[in-house]
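From: lab user (bench 3)
To: helpdesk
Subject: output format question, protein + pyridoxal-5'-phosphate

Hello, I'm new to running complex predictions and I'm not sure whether the block I got back is the full result or only part of it. Here's what I submitted:
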Amino acid sequence: MTQRCHELGGVNLGQGICDTPPPPEVLAGIEPAVRAGHNAYTRYDGIDRLRQALAGKLQRDNGIQADPDTEIVVTQGSTGAFVATINALLNPGDRVILLEPYYGYHLNTLKVAGLEPVFVPLERDTMALDVAAIEAQAVGARAIVLNTPGNPSGRVFSRAETAALADLCQRHDLLCITDEIYEYFLFDGHRHISMATLPGMWERTVTMGGYSKTFSITGWRMGYLAAPAHLAEPIGLVNDLYYVCTPSIVQHAVADAIEQLNADFYRQLAADHQLRRDRFCTALERSGLTPRVPEGAYYVLADCRVLGQSTAQAAAMVLLERAGVAGVPGSAFWHDDSGEHWIRFCFGKDDATLDQAMQNLEQAQL
Ligand SMILES: Cc1ncc(COP(=O)(O)O)c(C=O)c1O
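Helpdesk reply: Thanks, we reran it on our side. This is the complete output you should expect:
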């Protein structure tokens, strides 16, 4: 889609790259880190100051109490956190529950590690967590992957959903690997709930996060995880083996920014994206591509049946040709044909890009 979009000079809302500018506080930290000569490998689990800053943030924003010395690992993006976690804690052939729609890297990373994904869809219309369906697949599974706020679903799981899942994890002795990278992208007063804070869950949860999205620094590769020491230690060893460390200057700059930015920054981030969501969803609605209005993250699934195609792939191509707007076919997020009437758009874009996309949709004859 990206290649074809480029050929046609369209607006690419396909890839999940946020192109809003990083906060000045983040950029300001890089040059001093270079000048200070932070050129060497760091401790495998990250520099002290960053782990301490993360421990503070986890306590303040998530309600997670993690010991910065033994329970936090700085990783190469949250992607690196996931790779290190599944390779450290799971064995080839283990069954891992993956909720659909899923984030493609979760599925493919599981597959490359020789794990067996067990697909459980969210409820079809509401995209609610279908605990009975998960229960039916839980026997014999080792782990479940959770992503809230969700890409591409836009779901922010409620306390009741999270509690039901926590109960299930404990009854079936499941490890919970939770990807919370969009934790600050919350709309309409939805609250982010970290699974690790539910009674009995800290011991069996790996909480993954990162600053790719929050600070718009996808290429800096800055992520982390929090987990009890008995899980964090083996994950840290695998992280060391695969990645050695996260780029040292990035660690310093991000530590600076976490220390400097206060709650206003995170509130504004959510407010800005809610505005983008509202404007873009209105444009989709007007063009007949009915959106499933997201509660969080910066993606929206839109119903593409108005385009009259039999597959999401064909619909996405037709939309690109008729309107000059690229999205990702929904078939990328389900293992069966459940995604065929969706196209996913990313609205984590600068105003000029989003305005152009909305103008294209408005002018197009779909
Ligand atoms: C759900 C989810 N997890 C992880 C990532 C990647 O994060 P990182 O850049 O920290 O590796 C993305 C990026 O699109 C994502 O959507």
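A quick orientation on your result: The longest helix spans residues 263-286. Let us know if anything else is unclear.
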